[in-house]
Task: inverse folding
């Protein structure tokens, strides 16, 4: 390490997150590798290192002889200051090469509040923010991840966007970039070719129109041959899909610092507020024997002491119980624990939780989401009060002393009765705890309440978010009624939920507000200590954007949506039907292992729900 | 038969910024990768029985760090070193290991002296400065801990301080009985530790008969 770098790193917090050389980091020959890709996570190392999607892409790309992948993260504010004052550009970890020297820089869009970090990282890398201002020498800036399904607020800044699962399409993208380099094609020509790859969206090839009242009036291609609608990519068979044989093992403490295997992808429970439940369809489970092999290999390669079975809802995995039992038995004596990312007991039994808790004692969580059966029917959260009480009785009897319940406020059709329902459930669970407790510690119930954010491609995408005032009143209403010993009440800041709603349903006109916010110093908006609503308000005012227009307006059903041309395969008709059903308080069943309920993803993408067989596994 | 392995390791420039906890984690994982039969604690969440002497401050490299690890099965010190060195990252290396009788006090309890070398990188320190420090009766410095800030007299913690080729060498106290932070001494000399390379050259057991290597004479206690 040279002295200048040492001096710089000695002056920042947690310098080890910038120093690379982790076990299993891949260092390839820069000169001899044709296509160079930086996987850029728009948050700090400790957050980005936990992201499974990038681990998968990192392995797939580095497995190719003609491509390399390196990692880049948002420097924390003190490091940013050091980089700026030293005039050092933002670089990737492995080679230390500036991001500007890569062919592709790919950002993952995991949450709306990371958007300012993307622009700031481009600034720090010396890459023009606006796609239109980039030169032939600049890398192509790509993006993917859940927020790609309404990427319009970032349209000005991204060269191309990938919808859906990356395992297959990444090869096609590398092929195109390689061909383009061989043939010395221009940026425009590369993007034209990429626009032909299914799942790839090139925002600059589309133009949006707006009505006189400012409402969104549609978006269409401005180039011949560019598809009207881009539909996501999806892998048919998860067991045939590439998965990392090793993970980069960080030195510093990071989130999800453990072996992760993906037991299934997609969720068809059909909760109407949930974007993940719509965009990752259909359900595909991975073969349990294959999973066990992956775990063995990863434990050997990393030395981790924890195995996490990840997915949107691992409790739904067909053979979750035998799998957990076998893993616990196999790894117990080696000090390796088994965990499920969020121990939501709405989908599996307390006995299973006990199996896992043998190794690690954390709390149990349950997510009724709404306080009354009526509202749970509206949102299609198919758990009953009795389910909750049964779990609570079981859990307290088995020795747990605390249960955490997740709820949302601001859901469509919500009334005071539904808020009272939350209070009633909290009191009832506490009472059950007092009656059934076996441990010495006093029973405790934590009520965690978030504010509903309407998301694109869900049945509630048209719904206007409750005003901040209303949400605050609802929070105060609950706080007052939940103030009693044994109950803890947590809630989220209304401002950040509001900002999320603005971007979740935003259009291209928001780009200038994001750019302005970055100029005003906004970054790390997802971090309480950095989020600054005054600056955001100023950014909106300076750019003439009314954020309430995006967050709080009930969208007329006939009005085109800024994300109509970006499709997760779920049809708009299905979303409309589900919306109708919601207001009629009718539920829709899970289609997994049952009848199709017509979301269309299987027909559009020629895929189907793929469940492993429970019986075979036991043998 | 469970046994105790005491090992010396070195931290190179690549890993100088690891915290003590980072280092512990890194060793735990390396031992699992290397299939070292580490003994685990009892209870809900078993942890490897692994401990280190005198945590090294972030930013400092070292030639002489020491750790103790309990093994479930016998393993020769040679195998222990070679298996671990195969899987350790660049910047971390086992220098030597010895099998220790279980009655030997843990290395973290006995180590109480350290030697550091400072590379000034072109800057110089006047010899009077060094003499001044050594001639003082008291050297109060402000020390901030989780409990707050207080004045500590570091003079009794400094045993030697000499100018050397390109820098400084000093010996001081480490551990629970009295611990000098290298940045405190450097601060007294008008040096910001963030500008110079510091290396710990060794850890020692201070006794009436002088400074002893933490592994000296250990082998003979084996089997006691
Ligand atoms: S198309 Fe039918 S079976 Fe396939 S995910 Fe949608 S509702 Fe389920």
Result:
């Amino acid at each position: 390490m040279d002295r200048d770098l040492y001096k710089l790193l000695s002056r920042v917090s947690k310098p080890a997150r910038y120093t690379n050389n982790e076990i299993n980091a891949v260092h390839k020959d820069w000169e001899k590798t044709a296509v160079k890709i930086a996987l850029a996570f728009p948050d700090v190392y400790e957050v980005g290192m936990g992201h499974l999607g990038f681990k998968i892409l990192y392995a797939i790309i580095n497995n190719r002889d003609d491509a390399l992948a390196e990692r880049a993260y948002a420097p924390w504010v003190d490091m940013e200051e050091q980089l700026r004052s030293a005039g050092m550009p933002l670089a990737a970890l492995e080679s230390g090469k500036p991001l500007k020297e890569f062919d592709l820089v790919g950002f993952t869009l995991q949450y709306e509040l990371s958007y300012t970090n993307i622009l700031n990282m481009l600034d720090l890398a010396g890459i023009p923010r606006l796609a239109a201002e980039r030169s032939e020498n600049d890398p192509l800036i790509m993006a993917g991840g859940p927020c790609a399904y309404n990427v319009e607020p970032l349209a000005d800044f991204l060269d191309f966007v990938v919808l859906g699962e990356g395992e297959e399409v990444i090869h096609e993208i590398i092929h195109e970039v390689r061909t383009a380099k061989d043939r010395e094609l221009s940026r425009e020509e590369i993007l034209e070719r990429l626009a032909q790859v299914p799942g790839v969206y090139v925002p600059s090839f589309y133009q949006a129109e707006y009505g006189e009242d400012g409402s969104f009036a549609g978006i269409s291609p401005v180039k011949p041959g560019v598809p009207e609608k881009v539909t996501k990519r999806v892998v048919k068979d998860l067991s045939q899909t590439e998965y990392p044989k090793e993970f980069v093992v960080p030195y510093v403490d990071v989130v999800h610092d453990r072996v992760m295997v993906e037991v299934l992808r997609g969720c068809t429970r059909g909760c109407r507020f949930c974007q993940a439940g719509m965009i990752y369809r259909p359900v595909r489970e991975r073969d349990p024997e294959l999973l066990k092999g992956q775990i063995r290999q990863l434990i050997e390669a990393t030395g981790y002491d924890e195995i996490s079975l990840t997915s949107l809802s691992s409790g739904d995995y067909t053979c979750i119980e035998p799998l957990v039992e076998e893993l616990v038995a196999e790894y117990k004596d080696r000090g390796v624990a088994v965990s499920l990312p969020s121990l939501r007991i709405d989908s599996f039994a307390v006995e299973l939780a006990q199996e896992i808790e043998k190794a690690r004692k954390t709390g149990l969580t349950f997510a009724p989401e709404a306080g009354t059966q009526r509202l749970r029917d509206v949102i299609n959260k198919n758990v009953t009060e009795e389910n909750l009480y049964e779990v609570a009785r079981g859990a307290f009897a088995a020795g747990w002393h605390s249960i955490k319940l997740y709820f949302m406020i601001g859901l469509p059709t919500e009334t005071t009765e539904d808020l009272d329902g939350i209070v009633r459930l909290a009191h009832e669970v506490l009472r059950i705890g007092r009656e059934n407790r076996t441990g010495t510690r006093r029973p405790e119930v934590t009520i965690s309440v978030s504010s509903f954010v309407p998301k694109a491609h869900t049945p509630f995408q048209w719904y206007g978010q409750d005003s901040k005032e209303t949400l605050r009143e609802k929070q105060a209403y609950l706080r007052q009624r939940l103030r009693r010993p044994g109950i803890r009440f947590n809630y989220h800041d209304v401002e950040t939920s509001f900002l999320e709603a603005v971007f979740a349903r935003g259009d291209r006109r928001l780009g200038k507000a994001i750019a302005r916010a970055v100029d005003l110093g906004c970054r790390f908006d997802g971090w309480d200590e950095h989020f600054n609503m005054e600056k955001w308000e100023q950014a909106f005012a300076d750019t003439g954007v009314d954020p309430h227009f995006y967050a709080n307006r009930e969208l007329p059903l006939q009005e085109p949506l800024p994300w109509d041309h970006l499709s997760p395969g779920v049809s708009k008709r299905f979303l409309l039907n589900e919306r109708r059903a919601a207001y009629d308080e009718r539920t829709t069943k899970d289609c997994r292992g049952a009848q199709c309920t017509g979301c269309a993803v299987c027909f559009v993408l020629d895929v189907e729900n793929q469940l492993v067989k429970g019986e075979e596994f036991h043998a | 038969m469970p046994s105790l392995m005491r090992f010396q390791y070195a931290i190179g420039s690549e890993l100088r910024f690891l915290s003590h906890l980072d280092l512990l984690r890194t060793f735990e994982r390396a031992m699992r990768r290397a299939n070292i039969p580490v003994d685990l604690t009892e209870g809900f969440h078993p942890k490897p029985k692994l401990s280190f002497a005198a945590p090294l401050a972030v930013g400092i490299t070292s030639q002489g760090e020491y750790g103790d690890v309990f093994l479930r099965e016998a393993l020769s010190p040679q195998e222990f070193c070679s298996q671990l060195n195969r899987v350790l990252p660049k910047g971390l290396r086992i220098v030597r290991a010895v099998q220790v009788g279980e009655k030997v006090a843990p290395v973290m309890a006995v180590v109480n002296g350290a030697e550091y070398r400072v590379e000034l990188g072109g800057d110089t320190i006047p010899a009077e400065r060094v003499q001044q420090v050594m001639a003082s009766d008291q050297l109060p410095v402000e020390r901030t801990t989780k409990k707050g800030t207080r004045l500590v007299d570091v003079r009794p913690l400094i045993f030697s301080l000499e100018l050397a080729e390109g820098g400084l060498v000093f010996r001081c106290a480490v551990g629970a009985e009295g611990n000098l932070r290298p940045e405190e001494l450097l601060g007294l000399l008008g040096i910001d530790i963030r500008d110079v390379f510091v290396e710990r050259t060794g850890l020692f057991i201070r006794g009436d008969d002088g400074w002893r290597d933490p592994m000296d004479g250990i082998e003979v206690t084996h089997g006691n």
Summary: The first helix of chain A runs from residue 3 to 9. Chain A is about 35% helix and 15% strand.
